[in-house]
Specification:
Blueprint (H helix, E strand, L loop, with lengths): L4 E6 L3 H16 L3 E2 L8 E6 L4 H20 L4 E6 H6 L2 H5 L5 E3 L7 H18 L13 E2 L5 E2 L9 E2 L17 H7 L16 E5 L1 E2 L10 H4 L4 E2 L2 H13 L4 E5 L7 E3 L21 H8 L3 E3 H11 L5 E5 L8 H9 L6 E3 L7 H7 L5 H15 L9 E8 L6 H14 L3 E6 L7 H5 L6 H25 L4 E9 L1 H6 L4 H7 L34 H4 L6 E8 L4 E7 L3 H4 L3 E10 L2 E6 L1
Helix pairs in contact: 8-10, 10-11, 11-13, 14-16
Bound molecules: S-adenosyl-L-homocysteine, iron/sulfur cluster and FE3-S4 cluster.
Length: 591
């Protein structure tokens, strides 16, 4: 047991949330304890996101705050994990000397060793000569983990684990030997969520890593490396393990999750060597059978297998879908398997073909619309109580975007009728093709205007969809007390953040208060490993509490329940009737 305390804060997407959970599980096994505040932690870790500049700025400001603390207490170990570490590389330590270690998302299995080294270095310095720096503070030039020479400061491989450009080398790896794969496989399935004391009933399972799409604005292919598909048996074992530990809802994760495809007998595809989906269009199950054969597990096959082989999972969801090559085979499997959720997150990014081309998205607006129509055709059955809900992502102000291009995006927004849409102003990211080749020429004023305008349009649509739900009976997965409830109980915003979990105020599963642009998936959630102050959550016997639940179509519904049942209901399925749509929020009553 190390007895050291760790504060771990997570920024960015669900992939990062899962990474944080795995890292936390691993560190807990090694004897680290988790704390809800950075102030007195021995180790402070930020699992970071690079997708937009704003996401990085949050981390810079956190690191700035830590500089003061470190001045007083040099023994604190500060680590930057995730996409920002991978993207900025050793330059990050040079700019922010408060950082002791960095670990990219593809190297997280090395974190315990890096941390151990950092802690020991501090301890030996404290006992030898407290005024001298660690190994990286020695003068002269040294070679970093990926061969970079850093003048004036030796940044050693003991402090930095980054993939650099190795992740795209055209080698194939056997999945079982992949140490990252081992991290997913060895996940510690804790039956109790220390944040709430309740059984952990909802979990993420990764099915692919990385991305090969190279949309011209996006850093993810650089930070997460080449697309790798996990073996289906590993995925199913993980789902079974989670189900055995009480999990009833699983969300499968991948950047282009519907591109999942595993070639049996072949090694795992790395660096784009095995990309059998290239040049093929899935048009129907007969065609799928024609080329899939027994040696391939397609995404449709995987969904059906998990559904059938892990019956304890009451809800199977997946994000994020890529609109191209989304075959009817997948839609048929969703239609025919009742526990697969009828919710698709399918980002369009733009409604203008000219801009889509510049973004390298690989589809036209017509193809996107065709997909939406097919999805509705197969899956939208409100008369059977099984409607389909869609959500999207849009970027406004991509370089060269004109008012006409923007108008086309508005038309797409109206046509798609998303229940919610994440709308972002284009953020130029160094190292991407757009950054290098297409000047960021849309004035910020125009970006802001288009952003506000499209958010207002989306709010109208979301509001209409919310109103259409009134009177419906739905089954919700109870996520716990609503944010409003936590506020009522006197938890500060910071405490709510530490409480973790999917706390939200909109029907879209997004929390507008964390967002600069109104709607952003970038969260600053704790890992759920931080304890919530139990005194603050205690209630009187006859009191009611407001809880929030999520439908299988990803709508959030608030409802009141006796305070005494709060813990028992959390993590359960419950039937509600939707009684009211108040702006973007739905309210219901237990039936
Ligand atoms: N793999 C997913 C998206 C992952 S990134 C997909 O392809 O749909 C999440 C979202 O961030 C993207 O959908 C996009 O809308 C937004 N995004 C990515 N890079 C951005 C940038 N440079 N500026 C603004 N938004 C960006
Ligand atoms: Fe980024 Fe495009 Fe890959 Fe999504 S598909 S992660 S937007 S490169
Ligand atoms: Fe996710 Fe952000 Fe990385 S969106 S993949 S954490 S850049």
């Amino acid at each position: 047991m190390t007895g050291r305390t760790v504060y771990l804060e997570t920024f960015g997407c669900q992939m990062n949330e899962l990474d944080s959970e795995l890292v936390a599980g691993e560190l807990a096994r090694l004897g680290y304890a988790f704390t809800g505040t950075a102030d007195d932690a021995d180790v402070v870790l930020y699992n970071t996101c690079s997708v937009r500049e704003q996401a990085e700025q949050k981390v810079w400001s956190r690191l700035g705050e830590l500089t003061h603390r470190k001045g007083r207490d040099p023994s604190v170990v500060v680590g930057v994990l995730g996409c920002m570490a991978e993207r900025d590389g050793v330059d990050l330590i040079k700019r922010m000397p408060v950082v002791d270690l960095m670990c990219g998302p593809g190297e997280l299995d090395k974190l315990p060793a890096l941390l151990d080294n950092a802690v020991r270095t501090k301890e030996s310095l404290a006992s030898d000569s407290p005024s001298e720096g660690g190994p990286r503070a020695s003068t002269g030039s040294g070679t970093g983990a990926h061969g970079k020479t850093v003048t004036g400061r030796n940044i050693s491989a003991q402090q930095v684990a980054l993939q650099g450009n190795t992740s795209r080398r055209s080698a194939t790896l056997a999945a079982a030997e992949d140490s990252l794969e081992m991290l997913d496989l060895s996940r510690s399935v804790s039956p109790v969520d220390p944040a709430s004391g309740a059984a952990k009933r909802s979990a993420y399972v990764r099915i692919t890593r990385g991305c090969n799409k190279f949309c011209t604005y996006c850093v993810v292919p650089f930070t997460r490396g080449a697309e790798i598909h996990r073996p289906p048996d590993h995925i199913i074992d993980e789902c079974k393990k989670l189900a055995d530990a009480g999990v009833i809802e699983i969300t499968l994760l991948g950047q282009t999750v519907n591109h999942y495809r595993f070639e049996h007998g072949a090694s795992v595809a790395v660096g784009g060597i095995v990309q059998p989906q290239k040049g093929r269009t899935y048009k129907g199950s007969h065609q799928r059978d024609a080329f899939a054969g027994e040696q391939t597990t397609t995404f449709a096959d995987l969904l059906a297998r998990i559904h059938d082989e892990v019956p304890a999972i009451q809800r199977l969801r997946f994000v994020t879908s890529y609109p191209r090559d989304f075959g009817d085979d997948v839609l048929e499997v969703i239609r025919d398997h009742p526990r697969i959720c009828r919710y698709l997150h399918v980002p369009a990014q733009s409604g203008s073909n000219r801009i889509l081309k510049k973004m390298n998205r690989g589809y036209t607006v017509e193809e996107y619309n065709d997909f939406i129509d097919r999805a509705r055709h197969y899956l939208d059955q409100p008369e059977l109580g099984r409607p389909l809900m869609l959500s999207g992502d849009i970027i406004v102000g991509f370089p060269t975007e004109t008012d006409e291009d923007y108008d086309a995006t508005v038309a797409l927004l109206r046509r798609s009728r998303y229940k919610n849409c994440f709308i972002f102003k284009y953020s130029p990211r160094p190292g991407t093709v757009a950054y290098d080749k297409i000047p960021d020429d849309v004035p910020d004023e125009a970006k802001r205007r288009r952003n506000n305008d499209s958010l207002a349009i989306q709010s109208e649509i979301s509001d209409q969809i919310a109103r259409e739900q009134v009177g419906r009976e739905v089954e919700v997965f109870v996520e716990g007390p609503s944010k409003q409830q936590l506020k009522r109980e006197g938890l500060s915003h910071g405490d709510i953040r530490k409480a973790g979990g999917a706390i939200t105020l909109t029907i879209g599963g997004q929390d507008p208060s964390t967002s600069g642009t109104g709607f952003q998936p970038v969260s600053t959630r704790g890992t759920g490993f931080q304890p919530v102050d139990s005194a603050a959550t205690s209630t009187l016997p006859n009191e009611t509490v407001q809880l929030s639940g999520r439908t299988d179509t990803d709508l959030i519904v608030f409802f009141d329940a006796p305070a005494s049942e709060r813990d028992a209901l959390t993590g359960q399925m419950l039937r509600l009737r939707i009684t009211e749509a108040d702006r973007l929020s739905l309210h219901g009553k237990v039936i």
